[in-house]
Amino acid sequence: MSSIGFQAATHRGYFLGGSGLCRLKCRVQCSQLWQSTSLVNNQKEKDRYSCIDQSTSYLHVQSLRNFPTGKLCGEVVMVRLDSALLLGHLGPCTFSLERALLTIKYLYKARAKVIIVTSWDTTLQSNNPEVKSIDSFAEYLSSLLQVEVIPVDGRPGLTSFKKEEWVQNSIILFENLLNFRGEVANCNDFSQKLASGATIFVNDSFSLSHKILASTVGITRFCYASLAGFHFDEELTRLIKITDTTRRPYIAIVGGGNFLRKAPALRMLISLCDGLFFVGKLSFQIMKGLGMPVPSQFIERNAIMEALQIIQVARDRNVPIYYPTDLWCLNNDNCGTSRVVNSAGQLDGWTPADIGPSTLEKISSIIPLYKILWIGSTKYDLAEEFSVGATQLGQILEKASFDSCEVILVGNAACNTLRRKTGSSSQCIEFKNATVVWEFLKGRILPGIAALDKRYPYRIPWSTVFCDSTLPLVVDIGSGNGLFLFEMAKRYECSNFLGLEMNEKLVIRCLQGMALYEKRNLYFVSTNATSTFHSIVSSYPGRLSLVTIQCPNPDFNKEQNRWRMVRRMLVEAVADLLQTNGQVYLQSDVESVLLGMKEQFLSYSNGQLVVDGDDCGHRMENPFGVASDWERHVLARGAPMYRTMLRKV
User: Fold this and answer.
1) pLDDT digits (tens, 9 = 90+) for 443-473
2) What are phi and psi of 346, to 5 degrees?
């Protein structure tokens, strides 16, 4: 088989760049940059370009900004909007509103057929006459977009819309999603009907990222591409900045209540920041943990251990913890009477309302040129008239933002207080919805983000990875233990080989094997190639000559529930990047799996791929003389392998 495979490769030009380049060259010697000790003995064998932090890798999503504009023309694109951004209480000129409208305008200009889905609750409806009905909301959107928006009453889905009406009107608005139980339940049937007819989904409702909804999570199972809109993309970039410690010192001002529920997020902050300043009800819990006298009614008994743990981590890291030195308090007998009380003094007869002037002076003294995060209310009482401390803190942070401080405001308490005095906070990063940020800081995966297609977060330094990055590239999708590519790299040194594999442990093992064999024409990356193939391979300076997919796990579940490696996004990426006369090699020991892959490639390649020669009813010989690990196992037990080769025309 080996000699036959090599003859086929040299004669037909499989991945080796033509017969003139097919002769085996001398083995490329590794430079000192790639000695085995640098991978085996150094912890950086988990090369950051190969293996990324799986706990945060879901944050790197495909965005509309980077999606090929030409692929939007004529496609039905469903956009999930945040209605709060579009309505009057945020004002008509906010950047968030402009970004949300830009998503719609961008799609419209790209000649996509746009469907808008959104939701609004009774509170939003009572405060905004624009959403009294779907007709009034459509009229309001039309005025914002300067394009006619057609409302569709009843259950969302194109099945209830007359297609001929779309010839004259480019944008459709579906009914309020909160009117349907399937939305909140993330019902599979509702998601499928909602997505019916749509091929691309764009999420621009970042404030719902922490929820599992049919319109943000379930719908992604039925669209071939799921992307972040302009507003969503910008908010996600800002969210990631919260855990970015490049700018130091980094101080977090943390307020509000419910210490126990916020404890995981506080542990995250104490591990990131150079100081924590506790305000609001949380400060009493810390003061108690530090041994200060605090009235029992202000203590969460079930959170004492959590407070002690956070104090211990702060001591271990030598990170200071601050708390209010004085408080504005209300007299319990005379609600109109207020005064400043020392926080360590007796509070009998007084109810804390807000931080005092001495505390504000302390905050002001520690934040020059700092990166500052303010999350949670400074107030101990909800009465608006006793928010003097919060208002003054807003003024302090506003001044700091103009003095080159990086200021991040999280929640209505922080954002509204600053805006009330200044009228604008354009120098600050703002998150109105604190829940999304708290969940992120707790280390929890945000479903609305995780549901979107992923992109690879790094640009691979090809000249470092390969000895000669201009050689033809062979990509094995689902490279597994890498045995196939190791043997290919030995036999055909006039090509570079790249393995894409989801299992990070297997990739680490392959990288260790590379060090032992000192290969410079072979590399492995831990990633889901289904959505990241284009972002990885498009930056390669040479040509993509061959893509192989061998023996993917068969899944015989119902079509709407199955996970498949070969999807439209992958096929289009391969077809676009493959050089002319480049090949796609498909192989499986399950014939139906091979037929499914073949059908997908031929259907979604837009005529760019054809069957290369006669595949002998899918029983062609292995053209390379190199068998994959599973292929050897199948052949050893006497079972057949099914293969086909496609070529780009």
Assistant:
1) 999 999 999 998 887 888 999 899 999 999 9
2) -80, 130
